[in-house]
Amino acid sequence: MASEQGPSAGAYIQHHLTHLQNQAPSSVVDFAVFNLDTLFWSVAMGLLGCFLLWLGARAATSGVPGRVQAAVEILVEMVDNQAKGIVHNAQSRKVVAPLALTVFVWIFFMNAMDLIPVDLLPKLWEGLYALMGLDPHDAYMRVVPTADLSGALGLSVGVLLVCLYYAVKVKGLGGYIHELFTAPFGNHPVLYPFNFAMQLVEMVAKTVSHGMRLFGNMYAGELIFMLIALMGGAFSFSVTGLALSMAHIVAGTAWAIFHILIITLQAFVFMMLTLVYVGQAHDHH
């Protein structure tokens, strides 16, 4: 928490918005830089999601289902129904439906990291740094992978690759290339460059908006939690300090409850757009 003796509000937020990277932070764009915290928590949440789904499958019974099995069955049925309504190729749905389920569960758990108290894991990380004899001020840790633009765009690029795969698989390589140059304006040599340009624009726009929508919502939520935490950091035995501390508790609780809806909705929207884009890849123009 920020306090009168601690860092300023700006320094506090800047520290919490800095990633743990494989090299010192720099203002220069370097594609050899990796956000290690995003990679770690993404993999950890993916493994947690797979483990919980495995538990649900392992506990499956033909009798009266338990709570875990019932929850998993509801989730699987919901995703399967959405997939049937969007992707009309039954063979493709054998892969696309489980993929959509995985996307929903994975993103939900990554988003849910936002519900952990802002300072909990970063402070534990700083303590580990101190135990190793390192400077705790260099102990950066962001725990919401979807609030990282590279993480969100990485997910959307993965969806793009799946769409390209199905476009080629369904239409054939020649058919897909033909479509790139003949849609949407028509099959005429003069229109080929315009068709291809429009296809590229559509491809880039869908991929960027897909990732940016998730990133923007989760980044804003993360920032609001930090601002609420600053109110708690202003605690003191004064009227203002006590009022800010109470506001911190009330606002934090209210925002956390509302944020449960946001993290679920964003996971659902990303999953639905994944199904829509894969379904479009099956369409012939």
Task: Provide an overview of this structure.
This protein has 285 residues and is mainly alpha-helical. The chain has one domain (9-282). The chain has eight helices and no strands. Helix 6 packs antiparallel against helix 7 (192-233) and helix 7 runs antiparallel to helix 8 (239-282).
Entry summary:
This protein has 285 residues and is mostly helical.
| Topology, number of strands | 0
Helix content: over 70%
Largest sheet: none
Radius of gyration over all CA atoms, rounded:
23 Å
Number of helices: 8
Helices and strands, with pairings:
Layout: H1 9-16, H2 36-58, H3 67-86, H4 90-112, H5 120-131, H6 149-182, H7 192-233, H8 239-282
Helix pairs in contact: 1-7, 2-3, 2-4, 3-4, 4-8, 6-7, 6-8, 7-8
Keywords:
mainly alpha; 0% strand; 285 residues; 8 helices; globular; 72% helix
